[in-house]
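Input record (one chain):
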Amino acid sequence: MTGGQGQQRRRGRHGGIWFQTMVLGAERTGPLDADLDTDLSPDTRPGPSTAPAASEAGEPVRPFVRRGPQTPPAAAEMPRSAAPDSPPRPRSEPPAPLLRLFRAFSIARLLLGLLLLGIQGLVVFYLGGRAQWPTLAVCALQVAAAVAVLAWPVPPDGYMAISGRLRGRWALATVAVDLIAFTLLLSLSGPSVNAVALYMLPVLMAATLMPRRPALGVASLVVLLMLAAAWWGTDTPAELAAAMMHAGIAGGGVMTVAALAGELADRLARQELAARNTLELARQQARLNRLMIEEIQDGVMVADRHGRVQAANPAALQLIGLPEGGRFEAFGLDRSPSWAPLQQALAQAFAEGAWPEAGRELSLRLPGPGGDERQAQERPLRLRMRFARRRTRPGEALCVLFLEDVRTLRARERQERLAAMGRVSAGIAHEIRNPLAAIAQANALLAEELLDPAQQRLARIVADNVVRLQRIVDDVAEVSPGAPREAPVIDLGAQVSALCADWSRTAGIRADRDAVLFVDAGDQPLPVRFDIEHLRRVLVNLLDNALRHGSGQPHAVWVRACARPQGLVELSVASDGAVIAPDVEPHLFEPFFSTRSRGTGLGLYICRELCGRYRAAIEFRPRGPGARHRNVFVVTMPRVALASGATTLPAAAP
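The corresponding structure, as predicted from the sequence alone:
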């Protein structure tokens, strides 16, 4: 096997990432002396359930860090259709043990030929024997053939097929040449030469490196040659019988050795194939683990007891305020004072030997842009830890840190509570409809018979509150879970202009240059996928709020629709009213939260739920002091690519 093939194989066995192995191995929190089945040392050899370890050639550990828009290495190596249980790719080279056997047999052929030449020289020069030139010529030719095989450049297709069997021309250049040379040597030297010792090398070579039938054919030919030599070298029947018996016993031994060697070679090839399949599955699992850890939202870091971070995924770097670079480099937690709480927690965990299963919360004070402490912000984190000990280094332990943004956790919990409350509210709203309709009808019938003005006023109060309850029920039913429906593709700019004009007429706003409402929908089409009635509901709600809290001056309410990078479209509604208080801002999109006494508190909540149905997002973006329109609500939605040849969109809503 060539040096390049050997180096590539060593890299295949040892090159890779040990990060995912540690993450998968550290499953539960336990005492520090807990020993895992996974060897976490850099020179770990992968097995059926472990990932490849660090490279012997000194290649740096590749981190889980994004490098811009290019494809990650793992994604480039793994086919898109690959699955965790997909079969490994077919091998592209013969088994390495059989290649090593071929090289060993080639060297043994050369050594055997040199030994025969040395014996001939010893007989001639030291024992005074007569030189047997034909015998010397045969030995020299056999040595030359062995040297030629060793010195011949490796062919492009290799010595062997992928199955591990010797190719035909190389079988002729080795096994056939040895059979011919040893047969000539026996015929020239007579029965004094041990035929079994000479023929055993080509028999073993054929049995291990050739298919079963040709290998047994070589062994059978050797047995026939031995029987022929026994018959040729005897004169009397008694000598013939004894020689044939010895040759038969030796031939039986040759056939047995050939059969056993062939079976062992087949077993070696099967084991090599199984090892390759296991290694390929381990590599696939390592690539999948790499992709999963890189894409998860929680931060994952690996650190030692000295607070040195050995590996980290992009989410972890973002949570601790470390900018992502082109290549990850190990760093210490003492590098920045803002990481002091994290370093202290790690030291405490190593000192105690355990960490709570649910984790603990801590806060990092991260400086602002350019290290500006005046713009520093507190980032609450939930920290969980898992320990792992290296088998090869009993005194050294590693810790896997899992970082979660507490704000994200609270938002997730709030969403779950809101979802549960929404399901309950939908059921309650459905049950309220029928009694509410009965109350409205009974009140209408009663009002027809009332003559007292005071009683008529009470009937009107009942009717007004019934209408209000009916509106609340309709709002709750609007956002209740239901079967999704396909929304049409509309021109956002045209629809916004039409809806704003209709709203202006309904609200009694004059349409002139000094109108309260100013609309900037642009001239270019903005194709988005959104239901027109739901868009009307969202826009009217935002316009009502903007008008209610605005100053009423010309252009107090500003509506704009425009395209944004990365295939997005933005719809913004701004008002020049007093800026929303900071303590009110976190609760803007919560249900039943309102600053008005008669408000339902469902308007913005419904807007958010309707936007979520069409992969859109609504948020509040306050502007800084000095801006006229400080209260800005922005709806961001994905832009739809028109079909080939399509140039028109549905007409604007009337």
